[in-house]
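Input:
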Amino acid sequence: MSVLVGKDTRIVGQGITGREGTKHALNNIAYGSNYVAAVTPGKGGLTWEDKLPVFNSVHEAVEKEGANTSVIFVPPLFAADSILEAIDAGIELVICITEGIPVRDMMPVKDALKKSNGRTRLIGPNCPGVMTPGECNIGIMPGYIAQPGKVGVVSRSGTLTYEAVYQLTQRGHGQSTCIGIGGDPINGTSHLDAVKLFNEDPETEAIILIGEIGGSAEEEAAAYIKEYVKKPVAAFIAGTTAPPGRRMGHAGAIVSGSSGSAETKIAALKDAGIAVAPTPSEIGDTLLSIYG
Amino acid sequence: MNIHEYQAKELFSQFGIAVPGGQAAQSEADFESALASIEGDTIVVKSQIHAGGRGKGTFTDGYKGGVKVLPRGEAIEAAKSMLGNTLVTHQTGPEGREVKTVYFTEASDIQKEYYLAILLDRATSKPVIIASTEGGVDIETVAEESPEKIIRVLIDPATGIMPFHKRQIAFGLGFSDKAQLKQLDKLLTGLYRMFWDTDCSMAEINPLITTPAGDILALDAKVNFDSNALARQPDIKALRDLGEEDPKEVRASDAGLSYIALDGNIACLVNGAGLAMATMDIIKHYGGNPANFLDVGGGANADQVTEAFKIILSDPNVEGILVNIFGGIMSCKTIADGIIEAAKNVDITVPLVVRLEGNSVAEGKQALSDSGLALTPADSLADAAQKIVKLVADQKA
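Output:
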């Protein structure tokens, strides 16, 4: 009852030997996520936290431990290289938590993803990760806010995801999978991609889509939902009060000229028949007014 | 990160993009030599601030025009009127910006004006070059009114700019003269290389001009850079002019906080960029006006929370504060301790509403309540927003 990650996911942590990476990977393992290896170039042969073998390359982690998913905590100027290495090693799902990767570095990454012909999917960068409650949590999302269930959640923002997921859980509704796609202008998986996954997943009954100003990913998802999605969808868009031309924390959250405004996105979502929450406090209730 | 026009043109020159001769000066003492280094009987005197609309702007002392085309003999007088003066344009807000640099350039005879820019196309994740025969005007207007006059050429980052890209642009703009095609080829190569090598977010030439003699020149230059890349671009980073940025924003970025000043009266302190935006939105939704965007990040410590309060309170418009924290991995107790610590160091004289949710929320709320601080606790974000809007309104009544 999930997409992307579950009990069979075999995780390699790139850059988890650092302080932040160690903290979050240990949290993930405590949740029950199946980490099989760590990769830190130059530290191959060591053992991480008495738990995992450390390798010099992702290729070795794939070959020796059968890793099929990678999570990246590598510093921003080196993270694109780590993503490319994971793609080259044939990893199926790469989840990049790192914030602050230069846009220029992400252009070749996007190209390499395309050339992998669907073999590798990237989530992020600048994202909180992916969680299938009760099975697998990869990244920095707090596990306790979620419970297994049938609502798929996709969001560009970490804390807004937590807000929505927690509202659902408190109202007795669990989640199939929570996907944080990240706040950067170039990301691996879009709202549209995530909505398609949830739409095709028989165990996902309803969808929450959380967006924000900048780009047109929400509009693209709305057009698809209007045409193809019969499951109930609720949404929230952050940034109605954001001034144009300013980057609101996330590198991708910027209204440029006439494009990327919250108003345009909300109008597109409403036009697609999606229930749009008027405030972030009402994301859960907005979905439950049309589902459950 | 933005830079000044004169810095952008120096960068253009380094990458082989032709610009009119020019020299910047930061003091009156340098005006003579700056002027002497450029040619012509007519001189353009340009105020250097990070805002558009300079030509139509007015200085706070009543002097009109931040960009002037003058006989050489009058250039220094105009520069003196601009330097140290505060220029107000439609982009600066009523407070305007102080002119600390004046840029003297040669005046160019214009045969025709074009528009040329390079930026990231988010839809394809590739650089896109945008060109138009409609130069010297607002490109957004052109895009709306006559989209057929806009040429868009996507560049594959794997190959970089190729001759066929340059031909698409040159022929699309109607160039046919061999010498001009050659100039344009060099200019486009330089523009793409600059975009890629210096981690530009956008480089815009508006207008790009042809002169009666057939030269192609960048008459204006607007360049900004990817802040995420500055760590590997020390030469670009050195061009940053802190005087052009809100001091509160500079202070915040030094403390690892993300802060943007707005014009309302209810400050907010939030963790996470999306939630911070949503907090501004909900304040507005309940009839208030947000004073700022502030994201303290996922791992904020007591020092950062203290600094955040100081920055918020240095804004004289602030009449109330809303703290909204969703503790994910971070414990609400840590944030509560940070607020208590901050309150010891900062005199908080305006109403303060605190909404904590998530990890260790009970301990966090207990700590705040035990501290005896004068604050109003709130349960949901909606509850918090309604409370702060009411408290601010009540103190005015």
